[in-house]
Amino acid sequence: MKPGLFSFFNRVGAWVLLLFLVTPALIAIPVSLTPKRFLSMPQGEYSLRHFEKLFTSEEWLSSFFQSGVIAVSCSALATLLGTLCAIGLWRVSSRYSELVRAFLLLPLIIPQIISAMAFYRLWIPLGLLDSYAGLILAHTILAAPMVLITVSASLATFDPKLEQASKNLGASNWTTMRRVILPSIRPGVFAGALFAFILSWDEIVVTLFISKYSVYTLPRRMWNGIRENTDPTVAAAAVILIAITLIAFAVSAVLSRRNARAQAE
Amino acid sequence: MQALNRHIHPGWLIIAPLMLMVVALYLGPILNILWLSVTDPEPGFSNYAKLTEGDALIRIVWTTVRICIITTLFSVIFGYSIAYAMVHCHQRQKTYMLTLLLVSFWISILVRTFAWLMLLGRKGLVNVTLEDIGLIAEPVAFMRNELGVLIGMVHYMIPYAVLPLLVSMQSIDQRVMDASRNLGASGSQTFWRVYLPMTMPGLVASTLLVFILSLGFYVTPAVLGGGKVLMVAEYISVQLLVTLKWGTAAMLAAIMLIGVLVMLWIMSRFMKLSTVFGGAAR
Question: Where does the ABC transmembrane type-1 domain start and stop, copy by copy (chain A) (predicted)?
Fold first, then answer.
């Protein structure tokens, strides 16, 4: 189709929309630099005091630390369980395994408020409310489907004959898994681990239900700051989160480019 | 062991850990909630009957459905425009567009909600700017009403709307459009009668995906609605965390869950679920 007038206007519109998607978040940058004690746009004067507060306040630092611990543990656990499960489903690949796959993807799509209710309901009798274990387990269940998807995508391009060859050459199941399958699906595993980390790092709805005092993650503290709507430290935290997002994005772009190159070879 | 292997594929052994965990810690309590909706506080359908009794509950459900429909409509139209532009431009421009799309996809929901709070408030940047250039005399209420909720939700949902559409548009054979033009159809005829029907699976998947995600959305409505726009998700959280009434909350959750599952089933007729998410995960 020739790029007509319609196509041209649509492209301009699409760029406007894309900028509409990204730019609003940037307002956190000027607000975080305000010299005042309340949320405001700086007028001529700038100050880094809110960043200083962010990095010296015990509360914010402990939230960064807690979120980090929870996200790393969740990512490790979800990657382990999700990768194993993806390999299992790929090996079985029958009608039942596809049913199980669809079932295991449900935590991704079921509204978070329902997931939050479910975990809250069960965590009360199990005594897991407001504990690291409770948050890590809940986040792992939400994040494992991500790993399942990325690893399955990698497995789809893996040649099953390689596995057969490895076995024919006398390698055990375990050796085949470690030396043949895992290296070829590494990009999918890494991508899954990254997504799982971000999901947990950013999770708020379930966290609001199952944490209270002793575990206070970063999103939880931001949520509080947003509800109170006074302290500019929230803006500084938002800027840091945007920076982390951009870094994570760059890492994943490099990974996926390497993945594409590996597939092209 | 050998006999067992013959009946059960050994692959199930490594599927089992995750599956058991999800069944025990996720499916279990969800079934329990469904059960609660017909047993708490007393057995029977009294919770469901509440929907027909007062009009408070039904109004919340109606607000939720209305906001979700409007959100879905705008997100899918905007998403279609973006996806169309992405498929029909040069590789380099497409890469830039995809980068912007994915960056926005990845920015924390809390950061975005906070940003809207700063932009849309009475003394927010939008109002101040509009007043400075003399377009308005009084600050416009962009927040604490449905308008604010809609802005925040559409902004969040657009990337989700784009991804299934992109998958679907990329699989279309461009030669079909050329053939239509060669046979004498105009550009707009080709679009409405050939292109649009061919993107229908992506359109359905994108519509249902956005609608499902909007239904249970909590953060943005709670903040930008400012207590004035009560949607089901926020109502559930108040019921559980403040008034401790499981029955009503469970009933609303059950209705939402059944609605979501029905829509998922319809969606799976049009597009493989893992394709929808696979696009999102990349």
Answer: 64-252
Would the CB atoms of A122 and B28 count as touching at under 8 Å?
yes
Choose between B273 and B84: higher pLDDT.
B84
Distance of residue B35 Cα from the nearest chain A Cα, in angstroms: 12
Find chain A residues with C-beta within 8 A of B174's C-beta: 1
Q: Using a CB-CB distance cutoff of 8 angstroms, which residues of chain B are in contact with residue A163?
A: none
Of the partner residues A84, A113, A149, the one whose CB lies closest to the CB of residue B237: A113
Dig out the tokens for B70 from the structure.
């409007």
pLDDT tens-place string over residues A143-159: 999 999 989 888 888 88
Mutation site for A-interface testing, chosen from B98, B107, B181 by largest number of A Cβ within 10 Å: B107
Q: What is the pLDDT of residues A184-241, one digit of tens each?
A: 888 889 889 988 998 999 899 999 999 988 889 999 999 988 888 778 888 899 999 9
Question: For the domain A70-218, what is the CATH code?
Answer: 1.10.3720.10
Instruction: Transcribe A201-224 into DSSP letters.
Output: HH--HHHHHH--SS---HHHHHHH
What are B71's two structure tokens? 């959100």
> Nearest Cα to B279, choosing from B109, B76, B83, B96?
B83
Q: Considering only CA atoms, which of A146, A150, A79 is closest in space to residue A108?
A: A146
